[in-house]
Amino acid sequence: MERIQNNLLSDTYNLMQLARETARIKGSQHTADKLTPVVSQLKELVNQQQAPLSSAPTGILAQDDFQSLLNVEKKSNSNSISDARERNQVIVAMASGGMSEVDIARQMGMPRDEVRMVVNLANSNSRRIV
Fold first, then answer.
1. pLDDT 10s per residue in the chain (130 long)?
2. Distances (CA, A) of 80 to 64, 74, 77
3. Would you list the DSSP string of 38-103?
4. Phi, psi for residue 58 in degrees, rounded to 5
5. Cα–Cα distance between 101 and 114 in angstroms, integer?
6. Long-range Cβ pairs for the range 108-111 (8 Å, 24+)
């Protein structure tokens, strides 16, 4: 069997979950019970597909200076508000270096929308200062 694209598999899983919950809400418990094993097997497949994403970094991610910056960020991840400021500075630095939002989000372990918000906020603040 050919490898299924991760986003298609994830979308199918979400669709089946939605179908199961819809059946349950509409009172068709029998249909919901029939969909439960399908949903659980799809969930396992999605988890298996996502596992290879943690392979060795390549390109800009493999550069020593980036890895040093990332290691500092990971070590200081346990503190409070000052850490959030430092994390945001790291995000802005990565974006300024040409890194994509997806790569930043993956490396920082945070949602892409949050990365976008931090970068947009930094850009709007820099425009006000100038």
1. 455 566 777 888 888 888 888 888 889 899 889 988 888 888 888 777 765 555 666 776 777 777 777 777 666 655 555 677 888 888 998 888 888 999 899 888 889 999 999 999 988 877 665 5
2. 27, 14, 8
3. HHHHHHHHHHHHHGGGGS---GGGGSHHHHHHHHHHHHTTTS-HHHHHHHHHHHHHHHHTT--HHH
4. -130, 165
5. 9
6. 108/73
Asked whether the beta carbons of 16 and 39 are under 8 A apart, the reply is yes
Q: Token pair for residue 93?
A: 């630095």
Taking the chain, what is the end-to-end CA distance rounded to the nearest angstrom?
Answer: 56
